[in-house]
Amino acid sequence: MENQQKTALITGGTSGIGKELAKLFAKDQYNLIIVARNVGELDSTKNELQTSCIQVTTIAKDLSDLEQVKALCTEITTPVDVLVNDAGQGVYGLFKDNDLERELDIVKLNISATVILTKHFLKEMIARGEGKILNLGSVAGKLPGPWQAVYHATKAFVLSFTTAVREEVKDSGVTLTALMPGVTDTDFFNKADMNESKAVQDQEAMADPGDVAQAGYNALMAGEDRVIAGFKNKIQVNAANFMPDSAVAHQLYEQQKPVGQEQQNQNN
């Protein structure tokens, strides 16, 4: 296959949507470079995806540490044909109550790491005249999100950034695509301490990460600018376009508040 010698670099590639994307690239015989923090998860993912046809390289980095992000850029000497900026985190709770340092780490991971990696590998792709970049946005990037104010704001950045840079390089042979999932069945909500949210309680409404990854993969390969994964999410985003931001924020406040708080309000 013509893709056999191509390489995809995937951050956050050991779980959730990132791992499902890694599986799709492996199926199409891309060599993989997978970056995550947990060495055990990296080893497990490598053992799962490694075949005689592809090479899987794992690199342990904490991408909320920007010096480690920069080090990653210098460590990778193999030409990267596809960059997937999947790594991201959120934190649940009211902004006034959340830990500042944790929120700043989220900004570094979701925004700064994406900027650093995109700039580095984009330059190399432009020099070669080809390449693809997939940035993990979210429908959250189109919706002001109380209870996740910082996370939603970081995803708004990702969408704006991806769209702007895509326009800048439209004649270079390089494309940038934003994948916009909604609530997806991954470990994101557990890590964000968000299990008490109304939005997470309805397990049946969660999207399958494999389906989300496939939508993103198809859009990336087709060179599309962005894809909203899931029919319900498309409806929600389109509806929000016709509402004042303040009304959207109120709607999200009600959707994402803790279940216990709603029950308490009903009792009152």
Automatic annotation (TrEMBL):
GO cellular component: membrane
Any Pfam family matching the protein: adh_short
Keyword Oxidoreductase: yes
UniProt keyword annotations, A-Z: Oxidoreductase
InterPro entries given in the database record: NAD(P)-bd_dom_sf, SDR_fam
Domain of life the protein comes from: Bacteria
GO molecular function terms attached to this record: oxidoreductase activity
Recorded family membership: Belongs to the short-chain dehydrogenases/reductases (SDR) family.
Protein's name according to its UniProt entry: SDR family NAD(P)-dependent oxidoreductase
Naturally occurring in which organism (per UniProt): Mucilaginibacter agri
Species lineage: Bacteria, Pseudomonadati, Bacteroidota, Sphingobacteriia, Sphingobacteriales
